[in-house]
Amino acid sequence: MGKKNRELTLCQVRAAVNAVVRSWWLSPQKAKRLLQQTARRLRQYQSRNADARASHWKKAEERFAQIGIDIHTLPRADLDPS
Asked: What DSSP assignment string belongs to the chain?
């Protein structure tokens, strides 16, 4: 464990739930195959999304650096309204 939680999209949650519900009416072997295929596809989506997130973050850092802003030294916003 110890890994950062990955963000799931609504589409990915829907695909996972859909596969689980569909598996209820399949034989155990077919259900297992469907769930494995769905898990593999969702892992691919997660990997692709993580790559895109990293790329977008890197580009944003570069854009801020070009205008003289070091985002690592900016103070964090206090989101606690009390």
From this structure: --PPPPPPPHHHHHHHHHHHHHHTTS-HHHHHHHHHHHHHHHHHHHHHHHHHHHHHHHHHHHHHHHTT--GGGSPPP-----
